Amino acid sequence: MPRHALATVCLSGLLEDKLAAAAAAGFDGVEIFEPDMLASPERPAEIAARCADLGLAIELFQPVRDLEALPPDDFADALRRLDRKFAVMEQLGVTTALVCSSVHPHAVDDDDLAAEQLHVAASRAADRGLRLAYEALAWGRHVDTWDRSWRIVEAADHPALGVCLDSFHILSRGSDPAPIRDVPGEKIFFVQLADAPELAMDVLPWSRHHRLFPGQGAFDLAGFTGAVAAAGYAGPWSLEVFNDVVRQADPWRAARDARRSLLALEETVGVAGTLPPRPPVHGPAFVELAVDPDTADEIGTVLHALGLDATGRHRTKPVTLWEAGEARVVVSEEPVPTTSIAGLAVRTDDPEALARRAEALLAPRRDLPHAADEADLRAVGAPDGSLLLCCPQRPEPGRADFWPGDFVPTGVPRRPGHVAGIDHVALTPPWDDVGETSLFHRACLGLEPVGEWEVAAPFGLVRSRLLAAGTGADALRIVLSSSVVRRGGWAPGVPAPQSLALAVDDVLAVARAATAAGVRLVDVGPNHYDDLVARGWVDEETAAELRAHRVLVDRDEHGEYRHVVTEVLGGRVFVEAVQRVGGYAGHGAADAPARMAAHRRARVAGPAA
Amino acid sequence: MPRHALATVCLSGLLEDKLAAAAAAGFDGVEIFEPDMLASPERPAEIAARCADLGLAIELFQPVRDLEALPPDDFADALRRLDRKFAVMEQLGVTTALVCSSVHPHAVDDDDLAAEQLHVAASRAADRGLRLAYEALAWGRHVDTWDRSWRIVEAADHPALGVCLDSFHILSRGSDPAPIRDVPGEKIFFVQLADAPELAMDVLPWSRHHRLFPGQGAFDLAGFTGAVAAAGYAGPWSLEVFNDVVRQADPWRAARDARRSLLALEETVGVAGTLPPRPPVHGPAFVELAVDPDTADEIGTVLHALGLDATGRHRTKPVTLWEAGEARVVVSEEPVPTTSIAGLAVRTDDPEALARRAEALLAPRRDLPHAADEADLRAVGAPDGSLLLCCPQRPEPGRADFWPGDFVPTGVPRRPGHVAGIDHVALTPPWDDVGETSLFHRACLGLEPVGEWEVAAPFGLVRSRLLAAGTGADALRIVLSSSVVRRGGWAPGVPAPQSLALAVDDVLAVARAATAAGVRLVDVGPNHYDDLVARGWVDEETAAELRAHRVLVDRDEHGEYRHVVTEVLGGRVFVEAVQRVGGYAGHGAADAPARMAAHRRARVAGPAA
């Protein structure tokens, strides 16, 4: 099992905050980023003692810059500075220093000189029992690829000199990590892991602002880490993530997010780790809405009009079970500031095993209060604050987790209708938390990313991603959707509305019934439908029918998505009825701007001056 | 005087919000961005009526995409879509449509075909009294430079076809705008203006997310606009700025910011505009602190310890004048949540003219309450919420704005000392507002940008910029400093502390006196000073002396910046004593992380878990 380390530069806070947060998240060690130490009033030896108290090894001191391939005077200066750093390292009790490939304006393009000077520096390190890990920065003045850094280390041929391999520097340049497996493992002194989104920008700002924890970006971290493991590397897996958002986030939370990414990566790579295996997960069991008692009637009216029936009442609590097809919605009345999607219950072959896995992924176990004769469901808190409930695939009377047994049948007959099940839930955590929430749901439930969308909505850009697994009644889809920038007091809808989307087989019929029952569906106005005709998607007559029923239409290359949307209920949730035609894979993101504008208009009379 | 227009896509809100905001800021017209119309429930004719009511001309309908250089079938489709847009334009009452150069996958690299098809499209437009403005997108599939779009328009040779010139598309590619002056003015159908920061990224995301209003970025908008004016272009100057932050900001405020940028640009280009000329502005007259009565004693102790004397008390209000050298600080006691820099008073040859200019730059005039026999100072509200006071260069008894007359001399003698004047004030508006605040101060006061810094501070990245004018006692410096991302509840210091920096000629002497007087100066700890030695900036002995006096040191290629910093007083302001050595031009940004960490430690005991 590899040791897990975290660079202090990743986190927000004072050095003591960062160290405490890393320890609390279960890291075995840290990289000390020198500026964090410089801003600390504690002497290096005191910092070392603090780490020891927290059970953290100091795995690396970083960075040493502009050391090699220098003219004699500059090299002499560099060695003088290096000696000072060695003294600090001794006080810290750390043996390995990271040496970044030179960006010095006087650095020359001469690998022999680089090797010779690194040999000299490594000899001085060895004299003090220290060692140097040489890393090719992707923007190094001359040395900017890992294989060149390795050739120089080979040529320098000193036991106190090895390479540091950083996944960002290697993968951002499109270098092939596979040949790393041929490097002798003991010459890989250190491995730093960072993922990143594909961004069309220079590698330096990309690296300094946009790195992500493994599994949250587009890089093949598994391929990289697999190659490193195959080389026989036995040192720590260490995260070095420069990210503007993480840098200002709660460090305790960010450290958990970081460590979760390593746990998931170990599993992907097939390295022995601590994560219990995932039991088979099927579709949703039910969605739980937390609804203020004042709003419960309105929610009930809407659910009924869309085709669901109130089939059960909880034996002891003001909780109602609504059902239609395979769709189950549990409406829990409690005094809450706004209605919200409080929980997602999934069906699994082994609820306890799934809950244990979630816990190992650093989600807190939640004990749900229940009477002795009520169902005892396994539950954890997801990073976005919602509850993830682990339900049996087939609830059986007599089992402790037989949750339907908590409901007394109302005797209301289930109407035949058009609702097949739950299409998806759309959650709206702050954008800062989407990467973490997404990684948790992927790692825990086995969801895969289907796509990511960015739309120019009336109050700023909105980005969304769809995670999904399974098909048909087993389809489990979670949308995470958030404003990219939302800081001002002007923009409405904080927190942004969530959506409960029902899968239906005839959206026109559902819309007709809902309207007949007096439910107001969102009307985005005539221009939207004129545009459908202008695009050539539908003819005038169909457009008129769609508009009459307030059906919104999106398309992709596989098919069509037709949906109707209710007003926002109880301040934060709307319900959709969704008909997928063909292999449409998205979640109607293109319709979000018109829908948001209509929701806004429903709330205000005239411009919100 | 050119007409001022704004594209609706710039602003946040529903279409009706955007239009109202544009009108309120004094724009003459708008570009209607089609998706804004599609999300509106109003028919195009109703939108036209709304614009007319607001006094806004609809100058452009946009965008038409993928029209030219297409195979016959695709072109037929494009013409069919175009006819639909023409119908919408007729209802809107707009005559010009923006045609973006094709990004269609079937578009061919054939300028003759492009010209031929644009001729056909222009003929159809002309039949309906409409016209087409062809624009080269910087990422057009084949046509991606303005000169190529102009050659195609020339070849197409149709009176209803001209070019649209967008400064972003032209300047982002490094194209020379000078030859634009040779294009016949009447063939330039439209001009769109946008600035942008220099960013090392692909032009498409750069354009879609990071455009800025003129004067807020790095592009030579004056050169571009001058060339357009020289060509004889007589249409509107229209802003088309895609910016993630502006897109979610209060549209009324953003529209003012937008229009201010055009007013300033007109003056720079030398085009007749509405801005009254700037009277000579000299250094600061005084800085006003708003201080809670509970904190007034502490502030007074600190100012006195740093060398200022309480020379005057206001005749009627709890306001004290502190002085040393040319530094004047007015401490106004009032019940406020935190102490803050409430106002900056500048000396000018013509206070009323400066105030009129500020008003023309859309800063609200502020009437300061005063008794009949008290000074009547001209004042406006700056965009960051602080007050800008316009004081006479030499206050003379008898003048209505003789502000020193409001203070009764205390008789306290002024001590000889080391304070020369005000070095700078550092304001900390939210980062979203820095561009606007900066443009206002530059345009109003004639400040120039000296530099911009980004530092990795303990609670996230902090970016700062220094604006300055004048030298010696006439030096006027404003620092705007903010967290780039600060959304979470974890990060402290919202609002971030402001700084009042006094210029001194011997920081060690000032530090010694302050410490002797019992004022706690910030101590960043020993590691910072070890590093100064490691860098070779100072020897061990000097480092020890600096540390003993808690002097922080920064350097640039011109000189050195030595400063001491007090604790944060009254929750939001700290005072610095600053000694500039040589031609150091910055504001000590590099020391900010250590200073912020020390400030944080002074507030909390141990880690903030």
N→C terminal distance of chain A: 59 Å
> What is the makeup of the main sheet of chain A?
8 strands, parallel, barrel
> What's the domain count of chain A?
2
Shape annotation of chain A = elongated
Organism (chains A, B): Actinomycetospora straminea
GO molecular function (chains A, B): isomerase activity
Cofactor (chains A, B): a divalent metal cation
Enzyme class (chains A, B): lyase
Question: Could you provide a short overview of the structure?
Answer:
Chain A is of the alpha/beta class and 609 residues long. Chain A has 2 domains: 4-269, Divalent-metal-dependent TIM barrel enzymes (TIM Barrel, Alpha-Beta Barrel); 281-603, 2,3-Dihydroxybiphenyl 1,2-Dioxygenase, domain 1, CATH 3.10.180. In chain A, the strands form 3 sheets. Chain A has an 8-stranded parallel β-barrel, surrounded by 7 helices.
Task: Kindly describe this structure.
Two copies of one chain form a homodimer. The first copy, chain A, is of the alpha/beta class and 609 residues long. The first copy, chain A, has two domains: 266 residues, TIM Barrel (Alpha-Beta Barrel); 323 residues, 2,3-Dihydroxybiphenyl 1,2-Dioxygenase, domain 1. Helices cover 32% and strands 26% of the residues of chain A. In chain A, α1 packs across α10 and α4 runs parallel beside α5. The longest helix of chain A has 21 residues.
